[in-house]
Q: What sequence folds into this?
């Protein structure tokens, strides 16, 4: 499932994030790429030990914890602290697959990456290019969102970031180990949850809602790992 989650950060939060990021110390992004990815990665990022990165990362995780669309679609068990990256003119990230296992810095916990996420931080009219292009079984999807919006997609997908040809593209990226590893299973649960919410809005007293809720939670129990 590729899902657009709008307004993860408010307009004023995005402006504050950009202000801090513009003054930060950017490093070559290849430092944290896996073997294959380092050959195609050409961007800048903040060190995970950077105090600006740590502070913004915590704020973003706080916003994610309040976002029901994220919680219900990704079903997060562990969230990798968001990493901030910057693409200036000529920078890009060629086709790659994200590492399947990532170690959370500082705490030594290794997580499986089930869901990948990008939070767009630059206004779309402030740069040209820089689309996130995701390949899945249904074709190729080009994603370029408003500042503060997020896309999540299966970490199993091949994806790339097209070259930026004008301006600067700032974004946060992170990974989730989900309670439900399989993207198809997560998608089914998400559809069931949406159905429950829609029925609840129109038929709040229907006994069928209890059975639907029972199916949802018992499937979630069955698939949780
Ligand atoms: Ni990637």
A:
């Amino acid at each position: 499932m590729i899902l657009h989650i709008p307004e993860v950060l408010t307009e004023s939060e995005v402006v504050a994030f950009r202000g801090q990021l513009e003054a930060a110390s950017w490093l070559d992004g290849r430092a944290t790429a896996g073997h294959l990815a380092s050959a195609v990665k050409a961007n800048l990022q903040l060190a995970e030990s950077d105090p600006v990165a740590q502070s913004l990362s915590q704020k973003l995780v706080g916003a994610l914890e309040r976002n029901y669309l994220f919680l219900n679609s990704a079903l997060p068990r562990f969230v990798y602290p968001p990493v901030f990256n910057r693409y200036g003119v000529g920078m890009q990230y060629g086709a790659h697959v994200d590492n399947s296992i990532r170690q959370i810095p500082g705490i030594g916990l290794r997580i499986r990456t089930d869901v990948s996420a990008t939070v767009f931080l630059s206004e779309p009219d402030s740069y040209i290019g820089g689309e996130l292009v995701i390949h899945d079984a249904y074709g190729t999807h080009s994603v370029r969102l408003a500042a503060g919006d997020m896309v999540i997609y299966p970490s199993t997908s091949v994806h790339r970031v097209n070259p930026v040809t004008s301006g600067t593209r700032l974004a946060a990226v992170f990974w989730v180990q989900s309670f439900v590893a399989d993207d198809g299973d997560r998608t089914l649960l998400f559809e069931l949850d949406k159905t429950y919410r829609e029925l609840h809005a129109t038929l709040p007293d229907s006994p069928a809602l209890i059975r639907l809720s029972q199916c949802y939670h018992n499937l979630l129990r069955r698939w949780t790992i």
Notes: The chain has two domains: 3-178, 183-223.
